[in-house]
Amino acid sequence: MASPARKMPIKRLPMLPAERALKVIAGRWKAVILHHLFDGPLRLTALKAMMPGITQKVLIQQLREMEEHGLVSREIFAEEPARVEYSATSLGLSLEPILLALCQWGQHHADELNETHRLADCIIRPRQARHAHMA
Length: 135
Hints:
single chain, mainly alpha, three-stranded antiparallel sheet, about 50% helix, globular
């Protein structure tokens, strides 16, 4: 019996696991997009409104790359006009503590180099803290 065909990534990913992880999450907007999707599915227009500095073309490109790498799923609803929602997959959600750790390390790095004045606020926060701010 033949095994089901697997969709091969368009771009080959590095064989070194750390390099692979960095390649998958690399991109100016990927962490920001995931941050917004951690709380649930969103439509493209809602995502775009949350990130006024991104162009629609780049947003779609970043979403496609994350979908290709299994971090984001796209659901098309049979409506007129068609409605499309993006959501973080379980694999994408598993990046939340990693992105939080990267944000904290970035803050530590800036502290060590006396550059905290150049930093923006971390967008990734522990889930409990984010929900406490929303209440």
